[in-house]
Design goal:
Blueprint lengths: L5 H10 L4 H7 L4 H13 L6 H10 L2 H8 L10 H16 L1
Protein name: F-box domain-containing protein
Length: 96
């Protein structure tokens, strides 16, 4: 099977950047698609879902978390990968 070049995939995914559910399902196709879709999703995160905010906060390094400690908004657990997986699965279930 012949794969499309990255340039083509990026162009296609950029045309579909307003369709979050579609892009979330593309994350699970293969590594190449995932690597091309992630920058598009992170370029304009959908903050309507509280889980995305939690994932963003968990993704911060220690230095970036320091100013946020005083506001007590940091999540208490470090299950970042687990949360990302749950979010992707939730988005897929909504699509189906």
């Amino acid at each position: 099977m012949i794969a499309l070049p990255n340039v083509c995939l990026i162009e296609i995914f950029n045309k579909l950047k307003d369709y979050y559910r579609f892009l979330f399902s593309c994350l699970l196709v293969n590594r190449l698609w995932c690597r091309n879709v992630i920058p598009i999703l992170w370029s304009d995160p959908n903050f309507r879902d509280k889980r995305i905010i939690k994932i963003c906060l968990l993704s911060l390094n220690t230095e970036e978390k320091v100013p946020l400690i005083q506001f007590k908004i940091l999540p208490s657990n470090d299950q970042n990968l687990f949360l990302i997986t749950l979010l992707i699965i939730h988005q897929l279930v909504v699509v189906i």
